[in-house]
Automatic annotation (TrEMBL):
The lineage of its organism: Bacteria, Bacillati, Actinomycetota, Actinomycetes, Mycobacteriales. InterPro entries: ADH-like_C, ADH-like_N, ADH_Zn_CS, ER, GroES-like_sf, NAD(P)-bd_dom_sf. This is S-(Hydroxymethyl)glutathione dehydrogenase/alcohol dehydrogenase. CDD domains: Zn_ADH_class_III. Residues 20-377 form the Enoyl reductase (ER) domain. GO terms for biological process: formaldehyde catabolic process.
Length: 385
C-alpha cells in the first residue's frame, strides 16, 4: 500500500488505539496527515465500541494491519480538504462507515450502504478513496478501519462519512447513531419496512438489537419479543419497547419459546447476533409471509441451512442487511431529531464512558457479554462515574 504524499502537509501527532500484526492492541502516538481533496479532519468526542471491532481483534474478520480500530463515533470538524463545500470547521458530525462515493451505480441508485468503492477499496483495503492512508508512525503506514478509525483523538475521513448534525444534540450520546442505531433502526425501517401492528422478535439485545427493538416500537409493532442470555439486557429491552422476553439461557429451545408466545410465527425476526444458530432460529420462527433479517454479522466463511421448500410454501423472505440499508445523510440527522424529541432513548443504551486508554478493557467487557454500548472519550484522561 502506498503511503499518502506528505510533502506539502504537516501531520498532526495524535494518540490512537492500534491493532498490530501480532494481535497486540496498544494506545500510542500516530501521525495523522491533513485531509486531502474531498476529506475532512474531525476531533473525536466519543467512539462507540462495537462487535465489529471485536471481529477484527479476534481474527474472525481479516483486515489489513496495523490498523487504528473503531468505526462508530462523533466529533467536531477541525479541517476541511479541497472541494468540500458542505462541511466547515466547527460543524458537529456523526461518523459513518459507509462513506458513499456518490458516483458508482448503487450510489446513483440511492443505495449508498452498498457503495461499490466502499466495498472494494475503502473497507477491504483499510485506506481512503485514493487508495492511501492518512495514518502512519515510524514503522510505516497504518490502516484505517472501515474508513473511520475512531479510537483516536482525531480522524481524517471522506467528507461523505462525516454527517453534519444539529449542534444542540449531546455529542457523546449521538456517537452510537453512527453504527448501532443507524443499523438497528434502519433494519426495521429501510430493510424490512416493518408495518404497524405486526409481530416482531429480536434475537440479541446488544446495541444493534436494542436499536431494532426501538425501531419496532416506533414502527407500531404490537408484539416485540426480545431474546438474550443476559437478564439485565432483557430488562433494558422491556424499557426500550419489548412487550415480552425470552431468556435463551433458561429455555431448552428458543424457537419453541418464541412460538409459544406467538404460535402462528412472526411477521419479522431480526437476528442481531449473526451466529449460524441464531440465523437458523430467526428463519424457523417466521410465520406465513414473514421476513428474517440478518443484521448481526457472522464470521467470514460461515454457512447456515434452511428448508427452501418450507420457505417457498410459506412465502417467507430472508433479508441481508448492511448498515440498516441506510442513507446516512437522510437517516442520521433524522435519528438525532428523534433522540432530541425523546422518541429514541440512546442514553440508556450506553453502559460505560471510558478514557481511550481503557480500549482493551472495553473490548474485553464487550466480549464477555455484560457490556451494552461503551463509549471511549479521547478528550478525557479520567472519567468520573
Ligand atoms: Zn459497528
Ligand atoms: Zn458509491
Amino acid at each position: 500500500m502506498p503511503a499518502h504524499d506528505t510533502t506539502n502537509s504537516k501531520p498532526t501527532l495524535i494518540r490512537a488505539v492500534v491493532l498490530d500484526d501480532d494481535g497486540k492492541i496498544t494506545l500510542r502516538d500516530v501521525d495523522l496527515t491533513p485531509p486531502g481533496p474531498g476529506e475532512v479532519q474531525v476531533r473525536v468526542v466519543a467512539a462507540g465500541v462495537c462487535h465489529s471491532d471485536l471481529h477484527v481483534t479476534s481474527g474472525a474478520w481479516q483486515v489489513p494491519q496495523p490498523v487504528v480500530l473503531g468505526h462508530e463515533g462523533s466529533g467536531i470538524v477541525t479541517a476541511v480538504g479541497d472541494g468540500v463545500d458542505d462541511l466547515e470547521v466547527g460543524d458537529h458530525v456523526v461518523l459513518s462507515w459507509v462513506p458513499g462515493c456518490g458516483h458508482c451505480r448503487t450510489c446513483h441508485a440511492g443505495r449508498p450502504a452498498q457503495c461499490a468503492f466502499v466495498a472494494t477499496v475503502v473497507a477491504p483495503g483499510g485506506v481512503l478513496y485514493d487508495g492511501t492512508t492518512r495514518l502512519s508512525d515510524a514503522t510505516g503506514p497504518i490502516h484505517h478501519y472501515l474508513g473511520v478509525s475512531s479510537f483516536a483523538e482525531e480522524v481524517v475521513v471522506p467528507a461523505s462519512g462525516a454527517i453534519k448534525i444539529r449542534d444542540d444534540a449531546p455529542l457523546e450520546d449521538v456517537a452510537i447513531i453512527g453504527c448501532a442505531i443507524a443499523t438497528g433502526v434502519g433494519a426495521v425501517r429501510n430493510t424490512a419496512a416493518v408495518r404497524p401492528e405486526s409481530t416482531v422478535a429480536v434475537i440479541g439485545c446488544g446495541g444493534v438489537g436494542l436499536a431494532c427493538i426501538q425501531g419496532a416500537r416506533l414502527a407500531g409493532a404490537t408484539r416485540i419479543v426480545a431474546v438474550d442470555v443476559v437478564t439485565d439486557k432483557l430488562e433494558l429491552a422491556v424499557t426500550l419497547g419489548a412487550t415480552e422476553t425470552v431468556d435463551a439461557a433458561a429455555v431448552p429451545d428458543v424457537v419453541a419459546a418464541l412460538r409459544s408466545a406467538v404460535p402462528e410465527g412472526y411477521d419479522y425476526v431480526f437476528d442481531a447476533i449473526g451466529k449460524i444458530r441464531t440465523t437458523e432460529q430467526a428463519i424457523a420462527a417466521l410465520g406465513l409471509g414473514g421476513a428474517a433479517v440478518i443484521v448481526g454479522l457472522p464470521a467470514q466463511g460461515e454457512s447456515a441451512t434452511f428448508d427452501p421448500l418450507a420457505l417457498a410454501e410459506a412465502d417467507q423472505r430472508i433479508l441481508g442487511c448492511n448498515y440498516g440499508s441506510s442513507i446516512p445523510h437522510r437517516d442520521i440527522p433524522e435519528l438525532v431529531d428523534e433522540m432530541m424529541a425523546g422518541r429514541l432513548d440512546l442514553a440508556s443504551m450506553i453502559s460505560a464512558r471510558r478514557p481511550l486508554s481503557e480500549a482493551v478493557d472495553a473490548l474485553a467487557d464487550l466480549a464477555a457479554g455484560h457490556a451494552l454500548r461503551q463509549l471511549l472519550l479521547p478528550g478525557r484522561d479520567t472519567i468520573e462515574s
